[in-house]
Amino acid sequence: MAKPTSTHPTGPAPSRWVWRLGSVAGIPIRVHFTLLLLLIWIAWLELQQAGAQGLAPEGDPVAWLLFLGGRVLFIVGIFACVLFHEIGHALVARGFAIRTTEIMLYPFGGVARLHGMGRPTQELWISLAGPSVNIVIGLLLFAVLQATGLWAPIDRLARGEATVLQNLALANFILAGFNLIPAFPMDGGRVLRALLARRFGMLRGTSIAATIGQAFAIGLGLLGLFWGNFILIFIAFFVFVSASQEVGMQRSRVMMRGQHVRDAMIRRFESLSGHDSLGRAAEFLLATHQQDFPVVEAGKVIGVLTRPALVRGLTERGPSAPVSAAAAEAYLALEPGEPLQDAVEQLQAEKQKVGLVFDGAQLVGMLTEENVREFFQLHAIDSGHG
Ligand SMILES: [Zn+2]
């Protein structure tokens, strides 16, 4: 899966649930801790199932360890192939000078976060790159197994007697096939959109691709209901929602084209001092419509106090505690001339409520997703009046 977003050079705020595995070609590889839980859970299920089917070696501890090792190796191998898939997206994107800010591995798959999305032809090749990697890995493994005579007949696969490599080869073909399903958020959905966009333009191409994806999701959901398969129903729901999200994203991209941070930023706002009390901050919150406050000391911004941080600070420390104790030191810094689209994507990618706009060293504005939305509502009314 390749996902276009954009982040600040510092990257998203580190979360304790996300671990960094390393980096490939300067792209950080991160993994969500739930992936480890999934690995443990699958290993447990596999073992139980194997025990029930009498596949597991009995009594012999060494044979047991080898058996368990093989199972774990297989699952780790699958995620390695998912990682190669994402690296495939990232490297082709780099060929088009599109930066990848990170590759994240989740239990349900991987995501390569790209900075922007490029033209339709570029999106086509970037999207095809991931599944192609899996097809190549699958073919290579198949060739190795053929050459060494280790390819077990298909009927033995069904009984779970295939080797780790053979299972991995098959898993790669399944990964490629699944990702080429022509619906968002799968790569196939992006391939379809890119092909349609060359003819109908980006917005119309996206909306046709989304409709096709939703029709597919409805079919999948009906199958799930018919078979009583809840996982299928869940995937169908996910695919359906992704389609409308993609259309919404595309619309806002079109609206934001040519707009800059300075066009939409809030210019009149209150700042707090680090020594101000939280009680005073609460008064500000009530007296103005402002939700987030820059915290300034000696003319320098030292952090941001968001509404949730203020509420938390009030309950944990009381109204007399200083603002500096509750404010977050990390904040997103923007420039007035930055494209609005980039700024909003940075807010989303870094999960920040507010961005502070600096002209040189001077704080000149604030940008929130909400005020961007309001800006476009007014903008739409404006253009309606000609
Ligand atoms: Zn992909």
Low-pLDDT windows of residues: 4-13, 381-386
Helical region count? Answer: 14
Write down the Rg: 25 Å
Order of helices and strands: EEEHHEEHHHHHHHEHEEHHEHEEH
Largest sheet: 5 strands, mixed
Strand order of the largest sheet: 1-5-4-3-2
Strand content: 15-25%
Helix content percent band: 55-70%
Number of strands: 11
Can you tell me the overall shape?
A: globular
Compute the separation of the termini in Å: 41 Å
**Total domain modules:** 3
Structural class call reads alpha/beta
Mean pLDDT: 83
Spell out which ligands are present.
zinc ion
Describe the structure in brief.
This protein is of the alpha/beta class and 386 residues long. Helices cover 59% and strands 16% of the residues. It folds into three domains: 2-180, no CATH class; 184-257; 261-384, CBS-domain (Roll).
Structure notes:
The chain has 386 residues and is of the alpha/beta class. Helix 1 (34-53) crosses helix 2. Helices cover 59% and strands 16% of the residues. The protein is globular. The protein contains 14 helices and eleven strands. The protein folds into three domains: 2-180, no CATH class; 184-257; 261-384, CBS-domain. Residues 4-13 and 381-386 have low confidence and may be disordered. A five-stranded mixed sheet has the order 1-5-4-3-2. Zinc ion binds next to helix 2.
